Queue: 4 jobs
Job 1
Amino acid sequence: MRVLDKRTRFNRRNFLKTSAASVAAAGAVSGGMVSMTAMPAWAEGLTAIKPDAAKTLLVMVRDLYPHDRLGDAYYEKALASMDQEAAKDVTLAGQLNEGAVALDAAARKLRNTPYAAIKAEEDRVAVLKSIETTPFFRKVRGDMVVALYNQPEVWAKLGYEGASAEYGGYIHRGFDDLDWIKDA
Amino acid sequence: MVAKFAMDDDSVVVVIGSGAGGGTLANELAQKGVKVVCLEAGGRHEIQDFVNDEWKSFSQISWLDKRTTSGSWRVAKDFPNLPAWIVKAVGGSTVHWAGASLRFQEHEFKTRTTYGAVEGANLLDWPVTLAEMEPYYDKAEFKMGTTGTNGIPRLPGNNNYKVLAAGAKKLGYAEFHTGNMSINSKPRDGRGACQQIGFCFQGCKSGAKWSTLYTEIPKGEATGNLEVRPNSQVLKIEHDAKGKVNAVLYADATGAMHRQKARIVAVAGNSIESPRLLLNSASTMFPDGLANSSGQVGRNYMRHMTGSVYGLFDRPVHMYRGTTMAGIIRDESRFDPRRGFVGGYEMETLSLGVPFMAAFLDPGAWGRDFSSALDAYDHIAGMWLVGEDMPRETNRVTLHATEKDKFGLPIPNVNFDDHPNDIAMRTHAYGRGSAVYDAVGAVRTIHTPPYPSTHNLGTNRMSANARDGVVNKWGQAHDVKNLFVSDGSQFTSGASENPTLTIVALAIRQADYIADQMSKREI
C-alpha cells in the first residue's frame, strides 16, 4: 500500500531556520532537558510574548503535545500564531506573560526550579497538572491544539496528506490499497 | 429563468431554510407550479468555493452565530457555544452531510407502543407509519441517487471500510456493507461519480454527493417558480387577526429589514433555529410563541446517541482516503431490550483529518496519552456510533434570558442531559466498536465522546393529538393551518438511522399535501 515518507526533507533554507532550535529539540528528546542558555533567535522575533516567557511557553507546549519526532520549529510556529493574536490583544499578551511567570512560580513551589529547567518530563507534567484549571492553561492548551495540528508540515509528519481534490482524490491513489487484512 | 417575486406578493409560499427539508420542499413545490421564495440565512458557496481544509471549511460554512448550552452533556463543557455542527449556507447541512441514507424501521415509528413507558422519556408514536412513508422513501432514494436502491451499485470500500468489515465478519455480524449512500457510484442525474476525495464534510468538490445546493435548488430555479434569497435571516413570522401567518420579517446581508408577504410559511431552519424562530414570533394572540399551545415547541430535543471508536493498528490504514462514511454495520440497530436498553444503533465508518482529530478525539486532553494517538494517525481506523436517543421534555431549546444577537433577538440555549437509556446504549456501542477493531488486531482502541450535534431533531414534533406536539402528520402546525415545519425538528422520535433521507421523504410528501390543500383552497 502507498505509505508516506515522513522524514524531514532538508534544504539549506529550512535547515538554517531550524538548526538552532533543533539543538534544544535533541535535548528534549534525549532526556527531557531543554538547554537554552542563549536567547534563541525565534523568541526575539515575537512581539507580544517576552523572550523569557517564550522559552517557558515553548517547553510547556512541547509537554502539552509531546511528539518526539517533531522538532521545536513546529511548536515555535504554533506559539508565533498566538503571539500574533497577543500583539492585537493586550489582555491576551498579559495573560501569556503573566501565565509563564505563574508557571515558573508553580514549578519553584513543587520542584524548586524554573519550569523549563526541570529535567524530567513527568516532573514538568506534575507542575502543569497543578495549574490545569487556570484560564491561562486552558487558553494555551485550547489554542495550541489548533495551531500545532493545523500545520501542513505537521500533517506530513503524522502521515496525513491534506487536500486531495486537486490531485483527483484517492480513486487512483490508494483509497482501497490496504493489503494486510486477508479477504478484506 | 430565475424568478423574482415582489415583497408584497401574498401568493407565494415562503420556505425558511434551503437544506434537506427546505431545499427539497422548495423544489417540489416549484415543480408543481407553486411560487416559492426560499429565504436562506447563509451565503451561496458553490462547489468551486469549497476547500479541502477542515478549519478553513469550518469557518466558511458552519453556523457560528453564538449559542449557549446547559445540562450535563459533555458538549456543554467542551464546546459551550457550539452545541451543533451544522451549516449556514445555501444547501444547509446537505453541504456537509456524509450522505448516509437509511430508512427508519417500522417499530421506530411506534416507539411508545414498542418500547412501552420509559421513565424520564417523552416517547410518542409517530402519526405516520412506515407503510405510509414507503412510497416517499422510494421517491427520495430515486431523487438522491442512493446506492443500494434503484439498481445503483454500492460504493467501493475504502481502507477504513476494509478494517470495519473484517472486524464485523470476525464477530459474526451479518449486515455490513458500504451503506446506502446518496453519493454517485457512477455518473447520474448530471453529476459525476465519487472520486474518493474524502472531505465529505467540507462540501463535495466533485458534486457526486447529493446536496440541495446543486440539485434541488437549481432545478427549482429553472422552473421560474423559485427565488432563493441568500444572506436572508428570518427574525419573525407574522400573522393576521385570524391567526393565519401572512408575512415574514427578515434581515438581508446589510442588516436592512424586509417584510415578505406569504400565503403559506414553511419553517426549515434545523432543530435549534426553527423552534427559536417560533418562540421569537410570540405575539399577543400567541404569547408563548407561534404554534405553541401544546408547550412542546423547543422540547424533546434529540441529537442521537453518538460517540466514536478509533482503533490503532501496527499497520497503516490511512482512513482519511476516500468516502468518509461509506461503511456500516447494521446488526445492532435492531430492537432488543435484552442488551439493557431500548432502541438500537448503527456503526458507520468515520474519519477526521489531523486538525479535527486533535480537536475532537478527547477534547481538553493533553500529554503523551493524547499525543501518542495522533502519532499513530495513519494507523488508525475510525467509526461513528449513531443510535436512538430518548426524547425528554427537559432537553430543549429555549430563548436566552439576557443574551441577544445582532438583531436584538434572544439567542438560543440548548439544554441536554443524557437519558440513562442513552448512556447504557453508548456503553454497549463502545464495547462492540472496540470488539470490531480488537478482532482484527487493534493495539489500542479509543472511545471518543460525542461531537457537537450534527443530527438535531424533535423540537417541533409531530403528534396525532394537538396537546402532544407542534405539528400534525403533514408537518402542519396544529394551531396555524398555513404554517408548516419541514425539517428534522418535526421528528417524533429519532430512530437509529441518519435523518436526512427521512427529512427529504417527509418534504416530498409535504409538498404533495400543500399543493393539494392549495388547490382545494383549504390553505
Job 2
Amino acid sequence: MIEDFHKLPPYSLAKPEKRQLLLKELNELTEMHRERCAGYARFLDAIGYSQGQAQKLEDVPFVPIRIFKELDLKSIPDEQVFKTMMSSGTSGQAQSKIYLDKRTAILQQKVLLRLLGDYVGPKRLPMLVVDCPATIRDRRLFTTRGATIMGLDFMAKKMVFVLNDDMSLNLEALMGFLETYGKDNFLIFGFTFMIWQHLFDVIEKKNLQVDLSNGYLLTAGGWKKLTNAAVSNLDFKKRGENVCGIRHYVDHYGMAEQTGCIYAECAYGHLHASIYSDVIVRRYQDFSPCGFGEPGFIQVLSSLPHSYPGHSILTEDKGIILGEDDCPCARKGKYIQVLGRMENAEIRGCSDTYAASF
Amino acid sequence: MQPAFDRIKYLVGSRKILEQMETVPALPLFSDKVLGFLDCFSKKLMENREARQYPDVIAYAFWIRKAHMEQARMAYQAGTQRVGRGVAFQIAPSNIPVQFAVSMTYALIAGNASIVRISDKEFEQVDIICQTLQAVMLDAYPCLAPYICIIRYAHDDTITQLLSDMCGVRMIWGGNRTISAIRKTQVRPRCLDLGFADRYSIAVVDSDDYLKQDRDAIARDFYNDTYFSDQNACSSPRLIVWTGHGIPKAKEVFWGALADVVSEKYKMDPICASEKLLKVAVCASRYPGVKAIKKDNLLVRIELPALYEDIMGFRGNCGFFFEYSADKLQEIVPILTEDCQTIAYIGGIEEELRKVIADNGVKGVDRIVRVGHAADISFVWDGLDLPNVLSRQIGNS
C-alpha cells in the first residue's frame, strides 16, 4: 500500500528494495485502472499486455503523455471527480485533462510536501510567489501554473503574490513581506522566465535594494524560454545572487500528468527520483531502455495516480539517467538530467508550459 | 502597382513579370515552345549533381523529357483545337516537395501562364528545381520567362485575392483547411477553381499471387509508395486489405521484407515513435478489438477485426498501417468513399477491383495502379485529365 511509503524517508530506498515495493504498487495500479477505465483497458488489449505481467519496472506498460489531450481517461465515477487539472495550452491546442479524486489530490499534496521538505526543511514557511493573483482566481479551471501554485499552498505558512495582474512588480507587497518574514528562512516560487523578466530585470533596472538571501528559490522549469534567450541555469543563479542575494535554488522537473512526484534538483545539480516514483529513459527506435548516460525519451513512473491511468507515462522530453543511489548528496534513487523537448514535439504547435512544469 | 506585392518573395520570376502576367498570350496545348523548354529543363536537372541525389526530382525530370511529352502530344491529338485559359494560379502543397513543379508543368502544357505559391517549408528539392529553372529561362528560354513565377508569401488574403483576380484557373492543392481558407477569396466568374482535397489510399493484396512474386522487389516498391514520402502523400496506402487463401503466410513475408528495406533506408524522427504510440492508444479506445503489431517503432501495424466505415479518417504516417483480412473483395465497398483516391494492388485482381467499383456505384477511387506506382506522376490526377481540364476546347460545327 502507498501508505507504507509514507513511513519511509522520501529518498531512503536503494535499488533492490525500491524496485520491489514500487513494482508491486504499479502492477496493482495497472490492474485497477484496467478494471475501471475502459479506454485504458482497450489500450492494454491493443498492445497485448496481459494481466500481472510486469516482472520488472521496465515491463510496466506506458501510455504516451499526449493521450490525456486526446482522450478523457478516468478511473473514478463522475461524482467522485474532486478537481480537473488542465495543462495550459495556447489557443486552438488541446489541453491535457487530468481527473483527480480527493484521495489522489491529497496524496499529491502530501508527497509534494514530503519531497520539497527534504530540500527546504519540514517546517511550513512563508512564500513569495513571483506571479499574479489572477493565476489562481478561477479555481474551477486549473491551469498548470495555477495548479502548481495551489499545490504549494499547503506548504506555505502564508502566500504573498508579488506581481500585479499586468505582470508589473508589486513593490509594496514585496517590501511588506520582507519586513515581516525576511529575517528568517522563507520560500520564493515562480517559473524561471517570469522570475528573470519580472523580478530580476525590474530590480536591476530600477536599482532597488532587495535582500532575498534567506529565501529558497523553488522553480519549475520554464528553461526553454530562457535558453532561447541564451540564459543558462548557471547564469540564472549568478544573476539571482548578484541582483538580490539569492543563494538557495531548488529547480525541479515534473508535469501536470504526475503532480506531486517531482524530480527536485540537489546541490550537485541532479534531479532526483523519490521512493514514490522512478524514471526510465527509452530509445526511440524500439522503446528499449537506455543505459546510464544515453539520451532518450523520459518515461516517468508514479505510485500516486489512483483516479486516472497516469502511473506510467512516456513523455516527449529528452533526458539521461546520470546514476542511481550514488549521488554525493546522499539521496538514494535514480538521478537524471533533462535535455529538453524532443524536436518537433507536438507537431501541431507546441507550448513551453506543460512538460516543463508540474 | 500593388503595394501588397512588396510582401512577395520571388524564387523564379519577378514582380514585373507577375504584374504583367495577365497580358501574355495563351499558348496552344503541348506547344513547341513549352515542350522545347521542358526538354531543356529536363536535361539540366538530369545533369545536376545535387538533383541526382533526389529520386523525386529525377522522376520529375524524366517525366518532362522530350520523348515522353511528344508521346503525350500525339495521344492528346493536340493541334489547334485547344488553347490555355490564361493565368493558372496554384497553391502548392507543403507535404510533397516536387508537386509544385508538377503542377506548374500541367499548367504550362495546357497553355497557361503559371503563378505557383509554394509553402515556407524548406526542401532542398525546391531550391534545386527553382535555381535550375531560373537558369534555363535566362540562358535558353527567355521567351518563357513571362509565363512563370514561383513565389512565397505568408498567409495574406490581400495577395491571394489580387492573384485570384488575375487567373483563369486556380488550383489549390490540399488539405481541406487550406482549400476552405483560400476559397474565402473570390475568383472571376469564368474562372475554374479546382481543389485537390485530402484523400486517402489503400492497398489490396491477393495473398496467393503475392507469394509467387519477388518479395524484395515488392517491398522496395511498397516502400516507395509509402515511406518515401513519410506516408504523407494522398496516394500513399494507409490500409492494406488482404484477400485469398495464403493470408497468414503472405503477411509474415510481406511485413518481414518491408521491415528489412525500412531498417536499411528509412530515417525516422524520434518524435514519430511517440506519435505512433499515441495513434495506437487513440485508435484502441475508438475501435475496441484492434491489435497493435510491431517489432520496433519504424513499422507499426494495426490489425482491424472489422472494416470500420470511418477508419480512413484516422491518419497515421511515417510507417503506420492498418490491415484487414477480407473474405470477399466486396467487403471494401463501404470504405471506397469519395475521399478514396488510389487503390494500389498486388496480384491479378485489377479487373475484379474495377468490377466491384462499377457494380456498386462507388463514388471514390480515381486510380487503380500496381503497388510501386502509387506515387507516379500522371496527366490524370484526382480523376481530372489535367491537360484537357486546364485548356479550352475551340469547338466546331
Job 3
Amino acid sequence: MTDARQPGKEGGAVAPPDPWDPLVRVTHWLIALAVLLNAVLDEGGSALHVWVGWMVLAVLAIRLLWGVIGPAEARFSAFPPAPRAALRHMKALLRGRPREHRSHNPAGALMVYALWACLALISVTGLVMTDARSPVTIAEEKAAVAAGDWSVLASADDRAENGEIKEIAEEVHEVLANLLLLLAAVHVAGVAVESRALGRNLLRPMLTGSRRG
Amino acid sequence: MTLGAVPPRGPRSARRFSAALAVTVVLQTMAALFFVADAVADLAEDPAAPHSIFEALVALALILGVVMGVWQLRRTLAQMRQQERALDTARGSLAQVIEDQFDAWKLTPAERDVGLLALKGLDVAGIAEIRGAAQGTVRAQLTRIYAKAGVSGRAQFASWFVEDLLDPDPS
C-alpha cells in the first residue's frame, strides 16, 4: 500500500508545490486583503488607505526579492512570461485537458505579472498623489486640521505646483484600480475552472496544503 | 495510506516554524519600509544631524534583518524538503524490506494485507472491518502468518522488522 497522494506523484510528472511555501501564501493573502480593503471598503485618500498602500509596497518588495532568492517554484525563472505557452494552455483548458506545471501555469504566470504590474503602478501613482508623505504624517496633518490648525494646509499649497502630474497620476491610479479588480475576478474564475479541469482543489495549497500531517 | 497513522511531529513543527518566519519577515519588511522612508525624509531635511545618522543606521539594520530573515527562511525550507525526501526514502526502504520478507515467507495476497494492517497496529476487529471479513477469518489468517514467520505472536511479528533498526552496536 503506497501513498497515492504524495507530492509530485499525482497528475503529471511535475505539479505545483502543495502547500505553496509560507512566504508565497502570506504575501498572497495580504495582497488579497489589501485589494479588498482599498478598492472596496475604505475611503480613497484616507489615512487607512495610504497605510494599506504602503503595506502593499512592502509585501510586493519582499515577494519580488523572494522571486530571485526563494525556492525554485517561487522564482521568476519557474514561471517566465510566455504568451504563446499561455495561449496553448488556455486551449488545452478549453478542451478540458490542461497540463500540470511545476509552478504557476503559463496563463496564471501572465496573470501574476499583470497583477504585480498593476499593484506597483497603483502604489507609485498613489505616492505621487500624496507627495510620498508617510501615512503617519498624513494622519497627523489630518488631525491638526481637524483640531483647527490650518497651517499644514499652507505647506500643502507649496506642493500643489505639479498639479498636472498629480491629476494624471490620479487618473492612472483609478483606471488601474478598476483593472486590478477585473484581473482579480478573472484570477478567481481561472482558479475555479482549472481546479475543475484538473479534478483537484487548487485553493487548498494556497491555504494550508492538501496533505495530512 | 502511509505506514503509521500518527502524523510525524518533526516536519509539522518545522512547517509551523517556517510559517512564523515568513510572517515575521513580511512584518519586518513593512517596518523597514516605513522606517527607511522616515529616515530618508529626515536625512533630506538635515543630513548632518546625529538623529538622522542614527536613523539611517537603524534603517540599515532593519534591511539587514529582512535579508537575513529571508535567507534563514530559504534554508529552513530547503532543510524541510531534504528531510521529507529522507523520510520518504526511509518509508520506501522499510516498505521494501516488508515486501521482501513477506515474499520470503510465501504469504498469500490476503495474508500480506492482513499482515501489513497488523504491523500498522490494527487489532483483529479493525482489520476485519477494513477487509470486510469475519473476525474469525482474520484470526485464522494471523495464526497462519505467525506460523509461516515462525514467531510466537503479534509482538514478535512486529519486532521482526524493527530489530535491525535497534542494533545497539552499529558498525
Job 4
Amino acid sequence: MSETSAIVILIAAVFTNNILLTNFLGMCSFIACSGQIETAVGLGTAVTFVMTVTAMINYAIYHFILAPLNLVHLQFIVFIAVIAAFVQLVEMFIERFSPKLYFALGIFLPLITVNCAILGASLFMINRNYNFVQSVGFGFGAGVGWAVAIILMAGLRQKMRYSNIPQPFKGVPIAMIVTCVLAMAFMGFAGMVSIQ
Amino acid sequence: MGIYLLAVASFAGLVMALAVMLMVAERYLVNYGVCKLDINAGKRPLELEGGQTLLSSLYANDIFIPSACGGKGSCGHCKIVVDSGGGPLLPTETPYLDRKEIRGNVRLACQVKIREDIYVRIPEELLDVRMFDATVESSIVLTHDIKEIRMRLNDPAEISQRPGQYVQIQAPSPDGDVFRAYSISSASFEDNVVELNVRIVPGGIGSTYLHNLKEGDSVIFTGPYGEFVLNEDPDVEIICVGGGCGMAPMKNIIYTLYDRWPDRSCWLFFGCRTTKDVFYLKRFQELAKKHPNFHVVYALSDELGSDEKWDGETGFIHLGCDKLLEAGVARQAFLCGPPLMIDAVTRVLEEKGIAEKDIFYDKF
C-alpha cells in the first residue's frame, strides 16, 4: 500500500476519499461559510494551502522529532499547535502582501485554525504511513477535495434560495440533507481509484 | 519518569520555536513604518508607528475614546468616523453599526488597524478628555447596595465637567484593565473632586472594584464624556427623574443649578422600591427649604412592610410625574434609570407637552 503513487493519492483524496464527504470532517465551517460561491472559493483556497503546508511540517515534525523520541502520543497537541501557529503566520503574510485577499477572507482566515479537516489530514497521513511525497499529495488532495465540496455546496445553496423549501427544513437542515445527497453522489467515484 | 520530562521538554521546545518564529515574522512582516494620523482635517496631525489599532494609538497620544471592553470589540462604544485609510468594514464591526452609521464611515476604533495614512474625525469634546489620577477621599455607604465614592484629583488637579457627563473608571480584571462608565454626582463647581454613586452588581467588575476601594487608594479614570447640555434659560423648568441608582447625574444637575440660579424651578422625582433604597432624601429636603422652587418627590413602588414608615408618594414614579406636573410649562427633562421606567416617564412627559428633543435619558 505504501507504494501508491502520490498522484493516485491526490485524485483519491479529491474524489473517492473526500475528507468532507466521506469522513465528514470540517463540517462546521462547511455549513457556516457555504452561503456564497465567492467566500467558498476564498475559504477553500486558504484551507488547501494551509492543509498542504501543515501536512509537510507535521510530517517533518512527526518523523524527525516525535518518532525518534518515542513521543508519538503527543501528535494531537503538537499538530494543533503547529496548525495554529502556521495559520497566524499565513494571516500576517497575506495581510502584508495582499491586503485585498486578506479583507476578502476576513474572519475565515483565523477560522481555519479550528477546521478539524486540517488536523484530520495530518493524522490520516500518519495513520496510513505515507512517505513525504505521498503526504504532500494527500494534503493537497484533501484540501482540494474540501474546496470542491464547499464550492459545490455553495452553488447548490445559492440555487436553493429560490426553491420552495418546507419551513422546518430551511437553512441548516436542508444543507445537511443536501450534504448527504452530495456524499452519496460522490460514492459514484468509488471504483475509480482506491486508497485505504 | 524520563518519558514525561522528555515529552514536556520537547513540547515546550516546539511551542517556543513556533512562538519565536511568529515573533520574528511579526517583527518583519507587520511593519508598516511611520503612518500619518490626521484628526479633524489638520486639527491635530500625529505621526506614529503603524500596526497598532486606532484605539490604542489614539490612547497612546492622550486621546481617550470611550470604550468599556478594553479594545476587544465587544462593547461597541469606540465609534469614530474614519474618512479614509481604515480599510474595508470588518465582520467584527458590523453587529455594532447600523446602516446610517456604515454609510457615514463610522468604524469601531478598536478594530481598525493603522496600515497607511489615516484620516479620522473625532468630536471636539473627546479631544478635551483627560486621564485623571485621583485618590479616594471617602467611601460612604448610602443604602444596602449603593456607595458614594468621592475622589480628589491629583493629576490633572482640576476637571471641567457639565452636569450629566460621565467618567470611565479603569478597573483591573483577570483579562486586563477594563473601563466602566459612571455618571459624575459632584457638582460642576467642585472642580477638584469627582464623586460617584455606585450600586454593587453581583459579579460586576467595575462596581466590585469601586466598592472595595478604601480611603487613600488611588484610582485612574478618563473623562468627562457625554453630550447633555443644561438649558441656560432660567425660565425653563428642569425635571429630573431617576430610579434605582440613577441618582448621580441628578445630584450634579441640581447642585449646579442652584449654585447658578437660586430661584430656578426644578423637580426631582426619584423612584425606589422600599424604604431601604431611599438615600439623599434629607439633603434634598434641606436644599428645598433654602430654594422654594425646588420640589423633591420620592416614591416607593413596593408595598410598605410592617416595620417601615413612609409619608411620601407610593407607586411607580411615572404616576407621580403625571399627578404633580402641570401641562404646558417650558421644561427640559433628564431621566436616568431602568429602560421600562424611562419609557413610561417619557410617555408621561410627552403628554405634558415636553418636546422629544428636550428629554434626555441614560438607560441602564
